[in-house]
Automatic annotation (TrEMBL):
Gene3D superfamilies: 3.40.50.2300, 6.10.250.690, Winged helix-like DNA-binding domain superfamily/Winged helix DNA-binding domain. The modification 4-aspartylphosphate is found at D52. PROSITE patterns: OMPR_PHOB, RESPONSE_REGULATORY. This is Response regulator transcription factor.
Length: 232
C-alpha cells in the first residue's frame, strides 16, 4: 500500500488515525510538530500527508508552504479545528489538496484519503483543455499551454485547482457542470463519495479574482440545484 505521514500534536487523535490507516494496510509515521514533519519528509518522502493546521511552533500553513516550496508534490490533506472558510482558503492557496474539519468521521477521512491516492495513481484531477490555444471570456484571457490568466491586461494568480476548475467549465461550452462532475473531473473523487464544499469555495475565489462584481457574477454562473456553468 502507501507510506503516509501524520503531522498532529494531539497524541490521541494521531494514534487513532495511525491505527485506522494501518488497518487499511498503509505504512504510517507520526510527527508531533512541523519541524519534525519537515525533517521526516526530507528523510523519506510520503505518498500522502495528513497535516494539522494548529501545531506548536510552525503552523500547518507554514509547513505546507515550506514543503511546496521545496518541491514536494504528493497530496496534502489539512485538518482544521475551527472550520473557518478563511482557513480553508489559506490552505488551498498554499498548496493543500483537500481539508477535513474537526470533528470528523473516520469514514469521511478515509474517503478523502482514498480519493487523493487514487488521483495520484491514475493521474486524475489534472484537467487539460482539448484546445491548447488561448481563449477569452469577458475581459479575461486564458492560455492553457502556459496556464496563465490575464484580466484587463493584468496577470491573475490562480491556484492549480482554480485554473483546472476554470478550464473544466470552459470546456463544457456553456453546459451545466454538477458539483459531483467537477469533484470527479478536477479532484478525482468518485461521484457522491464525499460531501464537501470544496467546489463552492473554489468558485467563490474564482469570482473574487475574475468577476467585476463577485456578488453578481456575469459569466461564472450558479445554476440553482444543478451546479455551475460558464457563460461565454
Amino acid at each position: 500500500m502507501s507510506y503516509m505521514l501524520i503531522v498532529e500534536d494531539n497524541d490521541d487523535l494521531a494514534f487513532g488515525l495511525r491505527r485506522t490507516l494501518e488497518f487499511e494496510g498503509h505504512e504510517v509515521d507520526v510527527a508531533s510538530d512541523g519541524e519534525a514533519g519537515v525533517a521526516m519528509v526530507a528523510d523519506r518522502a510520503p505518498e500522502l500527508i495528513i497535516l494539522d493546521v494548529m501545531l506548536p511552533g510552525q503552523t500547518g500553513f507554514e509547513v505546507l508552504r515550506e514543503l511546496r516550496r521545496g518541491g514536494f508534490r504528493a497530496p496534502i490533506l489539512m485538518l482544521t479545528a475551527r472550520g473557518e472558510e478563511s482557513d480553508v482558503i489559506t490552505g488551498f492557496d498554499s498548496g493543500a489538496d483537500d481539508y477535513v474539519t474537526k470533528p470528523f468521521s473516520t469514514l469521511e477521512l478515509m474517503a478523502r484519503v482514498r480519493a487523493l491516492l487514487r488521483r495520484t495513481a491514475t493521474g486524475a484531477g489534472a484537467v487539460s483543455s482539448p484546445a491548447s490555444h488561448p481563449w477569452t471570456v469577458a475581459d479575461i484571457r486564458v492560455d492553457p499551454s502556459t496556464r496563465t490568466v490575464v484580466r484587463a491586461g493584468s496577470p491573475v494568480q490562480l491556484t492549480p485547482k482554480e485554473f483546472d476548475l476554470l478550464t473544466a467549465l470552459h470546456d463544457r461550452q456553456g453546459a451545466i457542470a454538477s458539483r459531483a462532475d467537477l469533484l470527479s473531473e478536477v479532484w478525482g473523487y468518485r461521484n457522491a463519495e464525499v460531501a464537501t464544499r470544496t467546489v463552492d469555495i473554489h468558485m467563490a475565489e474564482l469570482r473574487k479574482k475574475l468577476e467585476k462584481d463577485p456578488s453578481r457574477p456575469a459569466f461564472l454562473l450558479t445554476v440553482r440545484k444543478a451546479g455551475y456553468r460558464m457563460k461565454s
